[in-house]
Write a structure and sequence with these properties.
Length: 263
Amino acid sequence: MHGRARRFTCTSAAPQNRPMPGNRSPRGHRAPRRILVIDVGGTHIKFRVDARGRIFRFSSGPGLGPERMTRKVLKRARGLAWDAVSIGYPGLVFHGRIAAEPHNLGEGWMGFDFAAAFGKPVRIVNDAAMQAIGSYRGGRMLFLGLGTGLGATLIIDGAVEPTEIGHMPYRHGRTFEDYLGERGRRRLGTAKWRHAVVEVIAHLRTAFEADYVVLGGGNCRRLKKLPPHARRGDNRNAFVGGVRIWQQRRAPVRRRAAGAGRG
């Protein structure tokens, strides 16, 4: 693992809340040593065991459902050993469960029993949250994943809050993702897309009072110049985050004051 481990607590939709049935770690047992971390994306699935080592990948897309994905991972991971699984999912995760079907993949993700499919304990988090946890260096951090869509996660003093900012209205009847996602880049052209990214970063950093912004996702490489208080993340930090969420015992929920949580 890279860097010093951080202690994370959880808000309403954070990764360590209310594990799915059958996914609980036995009381008094140590955290699992070897973690299979799966980063699910709209164009590729990437996975590796622990935060270092070989990264495996294969194409995803609108025809890929969870059963087919698990079969492909297990086939390619034959010969590897792991004790638990972390999955970064490109959509809404609530109380450790997939709460909505993905926008860029096939159907059937809600309710799928990943623990039974892999035969190991599984923790599921939003994909942007997983990379954010791996990128976190303290304080108030906003993570934005610029990929097929737009992922956004806020971490405040170790409290993780995945968001659905990407699907909120932004301009002219379009969402933030319509501007900053891959479809937005193709529609606007790369030069105008870059301008939109810088503008949105400034708006969101002000709105969330973030100390700094970390940018990840495949399209981050297309940015020539970053705005103030922003830095490029490393997409491999998703694997660091997937390991980190197993290195802490399930923390009690740190709830926000009434009216300050998710809408």
